Amino acid sequence: MVEASELKSGMVIMLEGELHSVTSAGYHAGGGQQGSAVFAKFKSLKTGHIKELRLHPGNKLEEVALDHQEMEYLYTDGDAFFFMNPDTFEQISFPAETMGAYQKFLRPNMRIPVQLYEGEPVTIAFPPAVEVTIMSTPPGLHEHESSTFKAATLENGMEVLVPQFVKEGDTVRIEVASGKYLERIRRGTRKA
């Protein structure tokens, strides 16, 4: 059990018989007749719905520890995404609606940590950012300009805005949740 005042983003809590991850939690000191409170947002790991709750700082919540197992992404049939345990060859699936923004970044044979609760798959622990190759983008207007952006198509078919200096074939880091460009990855360059 964990007190509401100790909630942190990323924790997994059992609420009303369902697993929820804490997306944000903030403590607000009370004043006058208003008592102190914790305002927290919880995301259902089953449905993806968000709940916002106002809790008393002393409220006890059931924290759940999830097991992590690295699995290999196999394929999707449109309704579900299939993963395989590389050690036991056991396969599991996730409904398409639970994959959310992650599905655009999945590639066959990609290894991803899957979170399990009592042996059942709950969610995937997708990295916050992924590295993707630029397949097409127009040439930059000004080579060293970084304040204006241009459209680029990634290897997964997704379009993002990138700085002018990014070229076709470059590898860039993209934030998974928002789909925004973070940085260009430089490989094999040494500083003298």
Could you characterize what this model shows?
Belongs to the elongation factor P family. This is Elongation factor P. Residues 130-184 form the Elongation factor P C-terminal domain. Helix content is 2%, strand content 50%. It is mainly β and 192 residues long. It has 3 domains: 2-63, SH3 type barrels (Roll), CATH 2.30.30; 67-124, Nucleic acid-binding proteins (OB fold (Dihydrolipoamide Acetyltransferase, E2P), Beta Barrel); 129-185, Nucleic acid-binding proteins (OB fold (Dihydrolipoamide Acetyltransferase, E2P), Beta Barrel), CATH 2.40.50. The strands form 3 sheets. The protein has a 6-stranded antiparallel β-sheet, with no helix packed on it. The protein has a 5-stranded antiparallel β-sheet with strand order 9-8-7-10-11. A 5-stranded antiparallel β-sheet has the order 14-13-12-15-16, with no helix packed on it. Strand 4 and strand 5 (50-55) form a beta hairpin.
Adjacency order of strands in the biggest sheet: 1-6-2-3-4-5
Q: Which class best fits the helix and strand makeup? A: mainly beta
> Helical content, roughly?
under 10%
**CATH fold field value of the largest domain:** SH3 type barrels
Protein name: Elongation factor P
Keywords: Elongation factor, Protein biosynthesis
Family: Belongs to the elongation factor P family.
GO biological process, one term: peptide biosynthetic process
